[in-house]
Amino acid sequence: MNLSATIDDLISRLETFEPNSTETPAFIGLDGYIDKIQKVVQSQDGQSRIYYPTIDDFGKRVEQAAGLSAQLELVTQEMKLGGNAPIMAHALASLGASNYCLGNFGAPEIHPLFEQIHPQSKLISLGPPAETNALEFDDGKLILSEVGPFQPISWDYVKETVGLPKLVEYSNSAKFIALVDWCNLPLATDVWRGISQELLPQLAASARHFFFDLADPTKKSQAAIEEVLEVIGGFTAYGTVTLGLNENEARCLANAIELQTGKTASTELIDVCAFIYEHTNLTNLLVHPLNRSIIVSPQGTQVIPGRLVAKPRISTGGGDNLNAGFCFGQLAGYSLETSALLGMATSGAYVQNGKSPNRSELIFYLKNWKTEL
C-alpha cells in the first residue's frame, strides 16, 4: 500500500465527514470499570520517584520477592471511567458516531466518573462498576481487575434489568453492534447468544456490522473458547462479523484452535492470523500488534504499517480506541485498509495525548504521521 496516499485520502474524508445528528448508529456493550491508572515506584529520593520502565524490569523485582515477600509503592496518575465498552463508546462519539452503551456504570445512579463520557454516548446501566488497577509501563500494561459486579450479568438479567422491548428500541437503528470484554464477564457467552437468538430477529432488516473483542482469553477454558467462537460465527446470519485481537490474544486463540483441530499454526504472526481465519466463521479478522495491523478477509490478507508512540502518556484504553476508529471507518463506508489505518491513528492519538481524539485532533495526528514517512 502507499501509506502516504492513504493518509491523504483519510484526511480528506475526515475533513468532509458530516455526521447525521438524528441517527444513533452504534450499540456497544457490556462492561464498565473505575480505572486507576498507576505507576510502580522503582526508587525514591526524597519526593523524587523513578518508576519501573518496563514490565520485564518490574517482573524481575517481583521474582526477587519469591519466598521473601516485598512492599511495592504505587502512584495513581489518574482515576477515570474504564472498560472496553465505555472507552470505545466515548471514542466513537468523539469522532462523530452517536451510540448507546450498555454496561455497569452505577446503581441506582450513574457513578460520577461516567459523567466524563461524551454526551453523544447514552449510557444504559446494569449495576455498579467493577474496579481496575492499571499498572502502566513504557512497553505495555498490567491490568489487575476486581470483576465481582459482573457475576450476575446473564442474558436473563439483562432482559429483566433493561427489558427486551427497550433493547430492541436502542439497537434497532444501529448499523454497528460491538460486543467486548468477553473474558471478564463469566456469563458473556450466554449474553451474546441471547442477543443473537432473541434480539437480532426482532430488529428491522438492515446491513449490519458486528464487532467482537474477547479481551485476554488466557484464563478461559478450552471449552469456553470453542463455545464463544461458535456463538460469534452465528452472527454472520445477520451481517458482517469482525473479530479484533491484539497479538497475545491472537496467539492464545490459535493455541486453542490447534487443540480443537489437531492442526498446527506457524509461529509467524501473519500465518497465525490466516490460521485463525481459516478455522472460524468470520467475515473479517483484525489483529493489531504494536507496530501494524493485519486484516484477513474474503479479499485476502493485508498488512497496514503503524506508528509507534515512543513515550505513551497512557496505554490503558489504546486497543479500545483502535477498535472505535476501525468501527467508525466501517460505519462511514471506508475500506478495511483505511478503517484499520483510522483505528491505529485514533489509538496513537489517544496514547500520545491521554484522551480520545475528536476529528480535528485526529487529522492533526495524521498530518504529523505523514511528515515522518
Polypeptide structure, described:
This protein has 373 residues and is of the alpha/beta class. The protein has a single domain, classed as Ribokinase (UDP-N-acetylmuramoyl-L-alanine:D-glutamate ligase, 3-Layer(aba) Sandwich). It is 40% helix and 24% strand. The protein has helices at 3-16, 55-64, 84-95, 155-162, 164-171, 188-199, 222-234, 247-261, 269-278, 318-331, 336-353, 359-372, and strands at residues 26-29, 33-45, 48-51, 74-82, 99-103, 121-125, 130-137, 140-146, 176-180, 208-213, 239-245, 284-287, 292-297, 300-305. The strands form 2 sheets. A 9-stranded mixed beta sheet has the order 6-5-1-9-10-11-12-13-14, sandwiched between helices. Helix 6 links the parallel strand 9 (176-180) and strand 10 (208-213). Helix 1 runs antiparallel to helix 12 (359-372). The model has no long low-confidence stretch (mean pLDDT 95).
Largest sheet: 9 strands, mixed
Strand order of the main beta sheet, please? 6-5-1-9-10-11-12-13-14
Please indicate the count of domains.
1
Q: Structural class, please?
A: alpha/beta
SSE succession: HEEEHEHEEEEHHEHEHEHHEEEHHH
State the end-to-end distance: 13 Å
CATH superfamily: Ribokinase
Average pLDDT number: 95
Approximately what portion of the residues adopt beta-strand conformation? Answer: 15-25%
Topology record:
Blueprint: H1 3-16, E1 26-29, E2 33-45, E3 48-51, H2 55-64, E4 74-82, H3 84-95, E5 99-103, E6 121-125, E7 130-137, E8 140-146, H4 155-162, H5 164-171, E9 176-180, H6 188-199, E10 208-213, H7 222-234, E11 239-245, H8 247-261, H9 269-278, E12 284-287, E13 292-297, E14 300-305, H10 318-331, H11 336-353, H12 359-372
Parallel strand pairs: 1-5, 1-9, 2-7, 5-6, 9-10, 10-11, 11-12
Antiparallel strand pairs: 2-3, 2-4, 7-8, 12-13, 13-14
Helix pairs in contact: 1-12, 3-10, 4-5, 6-7, 8-9, 10-11, 11-12
